[in-house]
């Protein structure tokens, strides 16, 4: 048996079409036995060799083979593609890219192949691509609504979607809280603006020269200001300049504080 297996793996393609199909079927059978025994590496070897025997160049496939020949080849290829996808789903060989590759090849031959859709959906679940998994598994369950394996996969999908929704809620909820805090800080930063307004008003008020009652009376009579009035006026002017200087200082401090926000 071991020698026969080795011969199958090393045998070259036959020149006769029927011989090539027969050799491919023999490799497929040995691959299925190895897969059943969970010898997935050996199973993949046999399946790859089966595809080798039914591989044709584009010219031969399109112009030399008849429809019945192409059908015979595809009858070998389809189950081999599906079995290779199943092997690469196993944890010992896990390769999601290979699963997608062989499932796509199977779907090219049979667009409604439930096994290909299911295995592709499982690969998407393992990649945590929940949208793609949902799309593919929904197609599969529509074709076979009572398939237990598909139902289990959909239950797993729903659980993952629920967790993802919860994570998104926490994530965006935190973002909204942060946004509210930032808006609150922005509102608080209006205080320096008010201080700037007040300081500006103080400067404008200080810039206006105050006029005492005595100065007002003397100006009405056309008399020069008296010494007392002049002193009062000088004191007022002095105070005005101090007020102006203080206001400028407050304004500068407020602007500096505001620019640092």
Question: Can you walk me through this structure?
Answer:
One of its GO terms (molecular function) is protein folding chaperone. It is built from 12 helices and no strands. With 261 residues, the protein is mainly α. The protein has 2 domains: 2-164, Tetratricopeptide repeat domain (Serine Threonine Protein Phosphatase 5, Tetratricopeptide repeat, Alpha Horseshoe), CATH 1.25.40; 185-259. α6 packs antiparallel against α7.
What features would you highlight for this structure?
single chain; about 260 residues; mainly alpha; Serine Threonine Protein Phosphatase 5, Tetratricopeptide repeat; 12 helices; about 80% helix; membrane; TPR repeat; TPR_rpt; transmembrane
Which second-level CATH architecture of the largest domain applies? Alpha Horseshoe
CATH topology type of the largest domain: Serine Threonine Protein Phosphatase 5, Tetratricopeptide repeat
* Overall tally of structural domains: 2
Q: Averaged pLDDT, please?
A: 81
Question: Given the helix and strand composition, which structural class is it?
Answer: mainly alpha
What best-fitting shape do the alpha-carbon axes yield?
Answer: elongated
* Tally of contiguous helical segments: 12
Distance between the termini: 82 Å
- Please report the first level of CATH classification, the CATH class of the largest domain: Mainly Alpha
**Uncertain regions spanning at least 5 consecutive residues:** 217-231
- The CATH homology group name of the largest domain: Tetratricopeptide repeat domain
Helix content: over 70%
Question: What is the ordering of alpha helices and beta strands?
Answer: HHHHHHHHHHHH
Hey, roughly how much beta strand do the residues contain?
under 5%
Q: Got a strand count?
A: 0
């Amino acid at each position: 048996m071991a020698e026969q297996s080795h011969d199958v793996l090393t045998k070259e393609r036959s020149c006769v079409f029927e011989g090539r199909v027969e050799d491919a079927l023999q490799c497929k059978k040995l691959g299925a036995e190895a897969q059943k025994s969970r010898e997935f590496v050996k199973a993949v070897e046999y399946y790859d060799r089966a595809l080798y025997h039914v591989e044709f160049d584009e010219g031969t496939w399109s112009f030399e083979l008849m429809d019945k020949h192409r059908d015979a080849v595809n009858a070998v290829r389809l189950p081999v593609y599906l079995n290779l996808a199943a092997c690469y789903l196993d944890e010992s060989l896990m390769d999601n890219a290979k699963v997608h590759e062989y499932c796509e090849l199977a779907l090219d031959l049979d667009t409604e192949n439930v096994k290909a859709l299911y295995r592709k959906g499982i690969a998407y679940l393992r990649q945590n691509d929940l949208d793609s998994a949902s799309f593919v598994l929904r197609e599969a369950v529509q074709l076979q609504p009572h398939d237990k394996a598909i139902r289990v996969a959909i239950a797993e999908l729903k659980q993952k979607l629920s967790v993802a929704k919860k994570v998104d809620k926490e994530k965006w909820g935190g973002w909204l809280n942060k946004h509210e805090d930032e808006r609150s800080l922005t509102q608080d930063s209006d205080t320096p603006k008010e201080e700037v307004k007040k300081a500006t008003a103080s400067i404008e008020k200080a810039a206006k020269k105050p006029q005492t009652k005595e100065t007002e009376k003397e100006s009405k009579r056309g008399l020069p200001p008296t010494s007392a009035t002049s002193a009062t006026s000088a004191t007022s002017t002095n105070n005005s300049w101090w007020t102006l200087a203080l206001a400028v200082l407050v304004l500068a401090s407020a602007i500096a504080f505001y620019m640092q926000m």
